[in-house]
Amino acid sequence: MKEKLGPKHPNMLETVQNLARVYRSQGRYGKAEQLYRQALEGREEKLGPRHPDTLRTIDGLAGACSSQHRYEEAKKLYRQALEGLEEKLGSKHPDTLRTVDGLASVYRSQRRYGEAEKLYRRALGGLVEKLGPKHPDTLETANSLASLYRSQGRHGEAEKLRSS
């Protein structure tokens, strides 16, 4: 007998989260947030609050909040996801490092450049180690750090990242 795919079935929750990602990529942040919250509710209920999939959903929700300039809420969510991912997956896991990058972006948006730089460097070092220097996630973090440097007039440091 086939299993019924209800609204809180893990496959349905993955679909909801994927749709949230699509909306976010289209700039439809409110709709993305709504879907991330729906997926989060189901994942917390089915998997628990510290499951890696639940934590990845929190990371996505944090990104949606950040995209809407709700930085304090985003920061809180990123920290929650980061704490859990470090515990469950380790500090060098690519998912953990992507969350570090997200938190760095919030600090950059708040012009807290020292904290942003520290986090970008952490994410970049780990991503180079785990995924290699040419992986898209590594390159995206390197670009974010270079952009941070350029916004501070640190063009030489930004250029070094481009040539590495």
UniProtKB/TrEMBL annotation:
Protein's name in the database: Kinesin light chain
TPR repeat intervals: 13-46
Subcellular location: Cytoplasm, Cytoskeleton
InterPro entries given in the database record: Kinesin_light (IPR002151), TPR-like_helical_dom_sf (IPR011990), TPR_rpt (IPR019734)
Pfam families named in the record: TPR_10, TPR_12
A molecular function (GO) term: kinesin binding
Family: Belongs to the kinesin light chain family.
Single biological process term from Gene Ontology: microtubule-based movement
Keywords from the UniProt entry: Coiled coil, Cytoplasm, Cytoskeleton, Microtubule, Motor protein, Repeat, TPR repeat
PANTHER family: KINESIN LIGHT CHAIN
GO CC, alphabetical: cytoplasm; kinesin complex; microtubule
Coiled-coil annotated residue ranges, if any: none
